[in-house]
Amino acid sequence: MSAFLSKSSLNCRRKMADFQPLLNDDEELQHQQHLIAAEKKSSCRIASLDVFRGLSIFLMVLVDYAGSSLPVIAHAPWNGLHLADFVMPMFLFTAGVSLAIVYKKIPNRYEATWKAIVRAMKLFLLGVFLQGGYLHGITSLTYGVDVEKIRLLGILQRIAIGYIVAALFEIWIPRQTYKKEPFFRVYIWHWCGVILLLAIYMGLTYGLYVADWQFKDLHSLSSLISENGSTIRTVTCSVRGDLGPACNAAGMIDRYILGIDHLYQKPAYRNLKVCNISKSGQVSESSPSWCYAPFEPEGILSSLTASLACIIGLQYGHILIEFQGHKDRLCNWSLLSVSFLILGSILALIGIPLNKGLYTLSYLLVTSAASGLTFCALYLLVDVYRWTRTAFVFEWMGKHSLSIFILVTSNLVVIMIQGFYWKSPHNNIIYWIVSHIVQK
């Protein structure tokens, strides 16, 4: 996704110096130009990476617009995997692969660090602007933003966090330089950093004590206990290591640091049967109190393991650079992916659920494996067998993924269309389609 997420081209300028004509005769010049063109085509851009990114943005658009009609492809309410739950790991994976290519050579670590921070900050602020409430939704035609309720985290913010963590790993953590060392040992300090972040995540997830908590429900119709027109609801917890939607440590950290009003107001867990949500989106008064509470699926604690997904993608990028043959690359990618898949499945079976909202370890491994295997398949089809015409649409989407995210996924196109109405703002075609067709 743009220069912030997806610089997927190799450093061609340095390579081109080696192909300058040594003789002045026309035949030698034509031969050298042919080599330059071949080098550009084969090495200077990994087409499958653009295709992979394009597939990711396509799936995001699909689940965003079709998810309400087809719940099976929308996000799982809590535990489990649906199609939508693979999209975020795919973006983090491709960001990691791209980082390995961008930072193949680092002349100045301080300059590279500053550029990475600036890119991450730009992406983070863009995410706040697009998903923080500055722009109205499809059915809400109000303008302006309440700074007391602005959403601080979101999709682009999570990618920005994963990007800067992986970039700092690549820039500052040393690696072995001996060519005869096994690949895993070359990047042993990277994996030590991964283990450290994972230990912090597991320690906070299972070690923090989550006390009972209260929140104001401004949207409830109940008037049993009210303060200034809002209902006060209490969630009973007093537990450690709970992975349910009500009493997990991730939610507690976000409520304390970000503030409950700055979290996502329509979490997927409201679609659980226990919440008994109506077709109009209202939660039943008989539902547990936590069904009314906001929850940030791109929260602080889960961003630790989300960053690990980006670092895993970084390792796939290292394989891309270190191994020149297609067979070696595919064998190493496949081995890594299958290992992650087996380990993640075992963890899911022994009690660590596949959960996107918490970005659990099993979810991290299984979705990273799925991304790796998908990337292997696309690399085989596009870069090995050259089926570029078949995938040209996805390749184009991958090269313009940030623009597509801004215009389509963030509803900017929809908002522009809503600007044309008949007599009343509610008499526009988008609002009519949503209110008369989608919500029925």
UniProtKB/TrEMBL annotation:
**Which superkingdom heads the taxonomic lineage of this protein's source?**
Eukaryota
Bilayer-spanning residue ranges: 51-74, 86-103, 123-143, 155-174, 186-209, 300-321, 333-354, 360-382, 402-422
Enumerate the UniProt keywords alphabetically. Membrane, Transmembrane, Transmembrane helix
Offer one Pfam family short name for this entry. Answer: HGSNAT_cat
The segment(s) forming the Heparan-alpha-glucosaminide N-acetyltransferase catalytic domain are 45-170
Q: Which InterPro entries match?
A: HGSNAT_cat
Q: Which PANTHER family match?
A: HEPARAN-ALPHA-GLUCOSAMINIDE N-ACETYLTRANSFERASE-LIKE, LD22376P
The protein depicted here goes by the name Heparan-alpha-glucosaminide N-acetyltransferase catalytic domain-containing protein
Its taxonomic placement starts with: Eukaryota, Viridiplantae, Streptophyta, Embryophyta, Tracheophyta
